[in-house]
Amino acid sequence: MSDDSDFDEIAHEKLLESIKTPNSTRKTKLKKVVKKSHIDAGALLSHITVSRASTNKAKQSLGIEGLENPESSTPASSSGKRKASIENDEQNSKKKKKKVLKSKTLIPVRDIEARKRIEGEIAFKDLKKEVTGNWTELVQSNRVADQLIFPLVKPEGLLWGNEKSEPKLTEKEQAIMKATDIKMAKERLGQMQRMRAIVGIQEAKNRYLKKIKSKGYHRILKREKRKQLLKEFDEMVARNPEKAHEKLEELDLQRVMERGSLKHRGQNQKFKQMLEKHASRNPEVKKLLEEHLRLGRELKSKVAETQENSDSENEEAEVEGKKKLGIHEILKDAAKAAAKDSSDDQISSLFNVDDFLEDTKLQKLTLAQMRAKKRLENEQFKKKTTETEESPMFEEEKAWDKEKGSKKKLKKRKGTMTKKSYVKEDYDTNHPLTYEEKVKIAVEAAGVNADEQRMAEIEIDPRKFLELNAADLTQVSSDFVEKMDQFEEETANVINEAFKDDDVVGEFEKTKEDQKEREKVKDIDLNLAGWGSWTGPGTTENKRRKNFMVKAKEKKRKDGEKNGIIIKDNIGAMDGIGKIQPRSLPFPYSRVEDYEAVLKQPLGLEWNMEKMRDELCKPAIVVESGRAIRPINKKELIGEKK
Amino acid sequence: MKIKVISRNPNTYQRETVDQRNKIVRNFNTPADPFRAQTEYTRALNATKLERVFAKPFVASLDGHVDGVQVLAKHPSRPSTILSGSRDGQVKLWNLPSRSCIATLDAHRGLVNDISVDNSDGNSFVTVGQDSQLKYWKIPSTIDNNITTPAHSIALEGIAYGVSHLSYSSDFVTCGEDISVWKAFRETPLRSYNLGTDTIHTCRANPVEENVIVGAKSDRSIFVLDTRQDVPLKKVTMKLRPNKISWNPIEAYSFTVASEDYSLYTFDMRFMEHPIQSHQGFTSAVLDVDYSPTGQEFVAAGYDRSIRLFKSREMTSRDIYYTKRMQSVLSVLWSADSKFVMSGSNEMNIRVWKANAAEKLGPLTKREKQAFAYNSKLRETYKNHPEVRRIANHRNVPKHIFSAAREHRVIRDARTRRDLRRAKAAGLNEEESYLPATQKSMLGDAES
Prior knowledge:
- The complex is a heterodimer of chains A (about 650) and B (about 450).
- Chain A is an all-alpha fold.
- Helices cover about 65% and strands about 0% of the residues of chain A.
- Chain A has helices spanning about 1-20, 30-35, 40-45, 55-60, 70-75, 85-105, 110-145, 170-180, 180-210, 215-240, 240-260, 270-280, 285-300, 305-310, 315-325, 325-360, 360-385, 390-420, 435-445, 450-460, 460-500, 505-520, 540-545, 590-600, 610-615, 635-640; strands at about 150, 525, 550, 620.
- Chain A is flat, with a radius of gyration of 61 Å.
- Chain B is an alpha+beta fold.
- Chain B has two domains: about 60-355, Methylamine Dehydrogenase, Chain H (7 Propeller), CATH 2.130.10.10; about 400-445.
- The longest helix of chain B is centred in the C-terminal third of the chain and has 27 residues, at about 400-425.
- In chain B, helix 2 (about 35-55) packs across helix 3 (about 365-380).
- The chains are: A mainly alpha (about 650), B alpha+beta (about 450).
- At the A-B interface, helix 6, helix 7, helix 24 and helix 25 of A face helix 2, strand 13 and helix 3 of B.
- Chain B: One of its GO terms (cellular component) is small-subunit processome.
């Protein structure tokens, strides 16, 4: 081996040296000499052509820097470009040797191999230091990292693989890029959002205003509108009287329409209720109400006419006269007036308009008069109603009011009766029913609900109810019971059929017995063949055996008396759950608690929120398929560090 | 028999919503679920079983070579392109997605010893062959049988056995009788190192540090070289021949050696006295090794007609791939996107395998991703439970591997017993006398 030959040379060298220097002991080992002797190392190092920091340091530590020839250090091998084989190097060294020979008297024996070895060792130390310094931290952090996402350093540029080539854009593409500039787009988006918000707010406001139910608010609103309208109208009169005329006509038409639509009527709650509940069923009441309404309309719509016909106090008298008349007569009059109205209305209104247009003072006056009239009429009407309280109409109304309550009760009754009928309770027809009587009176008087009543009578017949229901009840229950019995039998049969062959209880008992037998503590038999087998008077086989038997203690079983249960007494570590439990602490853990804590951490979605689960289950290595992962790039990393 | 169950129509108690989403009522202070551990253990067990059920690693076979595939190489930036060189001197370029050969070159007479692709921009590659030729080829941007002649060709003095590009550079080193550093299109090397009379049969440049090279000589030694220095830095000798070397791409100082003694050894370049980890499991010589680009795992090719995947710091292999017709594997490769491994074997086929046998290929939905992540986490957490471990580690291996492994186990045990007895006889303590496999693999003391 080459190594052996090396050793020989060194030994030889050592031998020579020891001869030269009488102080050195022969016992020192060869290797140590190579490493330790100052003279040797210094001499060898003097020929190192590489000028490196550590080499210099090594030289310093060896105390040979001063000795070195300044010329020898200059032809340092600038590593990258110099093309040098070992042979060339040797030649160089020979030249240097000659130089040294010239300068120095004492010439140590140089071994090229040994020199190379030391050179290599020093360079290796350098490399070791460099590599350790550069990479240890990164490698260690990568090794302990929870997750490594590859590529470790994100490449710049859009495309991975040819990062250098930036995509060149055509003019069209640039225009598109400009059009799709994110800043602009964001601005535009912001504007749009603002606009949308404003529209939304306005819409919401409108919706809110529409929903306002306050009468006061609407009154104010209307008044404002009216004012506005009048203002416009005034202006129009001044500017364009013909148009104003048209406008007035239009307004009047509107008023007529509004009045005709009954929109302003029947707004109070009581009236509504009456309309809903009774007028629809009772034609008489309906008629009455209609008349009532018509009267109201008449009284209100006729204001202009009355004003036109009579602007004196006799009107009041007339009204009083009317009031004294019966209500039918009033209604008749009203109807007639209305009939007349319909024909005269337009003419009169036109006439009125002309008057109106003539004088504004007159307008005001008429307005005031109209209002006064209206108020007066309302009062009169009220009085009338109070005066005519004892009229049949109101009598009827009361009855209706009562009936409303009683109907409810009636309905209830029906319900209770149907229930009661099951419990065989007699139905008392003579039960005092004040409400019912009243209802009957009212209904008969009005002639309503005749059919309904008949129906109710049929339904409420107690005997029918009782008989029918009682029979049903008994029949059902007996049927049900029978069926239940039948069902139970059937199921029992089915079950018996299904488990015909297996005697579950018996089997269980048997296994229990087996278990008991197996777990029973057995006697220890210490009999040995030949021992104690002597015979004599009084010794029987049985007695003899007993001498060598150690009787086992009776052990009480936990499940001894309990039926349908087996409790195993002696379970080994590996019998039960031990089979699936880890037997020793796995590698990275040093304490059982740590390992248990890791196992106790739930991972599933049932015990964690989704984010937590994702965090817990994140893969240790993340790679993108189809994307090349390149080794760590030193230049990039060092660039980053700087 | 009619079975009655309590069921409620959600419509009866849930309010109707516009987008069919109802509020989920949660208790944020829920009591601990008493069956949590049981449930998750069962899930882990099922996940492990399913992982084995779905473990179908074989993806494709690339056939076209007419002799054993001696060497495989990957393109550094194009994960879909791989190169292969066979024993008859042919080099083929393959497109993985289409599983087709995109170029065939008659590169050398005699076998192709090594291929290496340019590390700076990936526009060229270098081949060395048994015919003492070094050939420099250009890679066009689209390859379609358009590579015919080398861009440059150099006749070397001796046979070059290996070639490897320096880190992020288009310079490369060749090894054979000596180590030479080359620049593209130069007739002579930049520098060369004479390391003695022994042939250097493999060398690999460090993928991170641009100046560091490791290689193996036929005297069973591994050496470290710094291209800035004139002399080799370190040399250690193993008991059996190191066949191939691969650097860890994200750890600048660790590399793994495929050894003739049926195992692999991971070295720390700074402490070469003995390897820091041995990787066992092969039943015959290990012929090639290649690291995953993530640096977490490596794949190794065995003369025993199998390939094994190892985690970079674990002793036993995490998986073994084989097929009935695959002969001894001469070369392996881990794809650049770390999803596949390739094996080139003596019976002329290149086989593509999934790096994770049970992995589902193709795009995954979010829920699938989450489910897979959950399952793999469960497997990881419960991997030390006996049942889970038994299922996860069980592999059906070919009979020859099974019996060989048993035989080796017997031999190993016998040796251990013998060593123990010898130590006892010598009056040594058990612990003192114990030598780990990593130290046993080295010959004597470390020497420079």
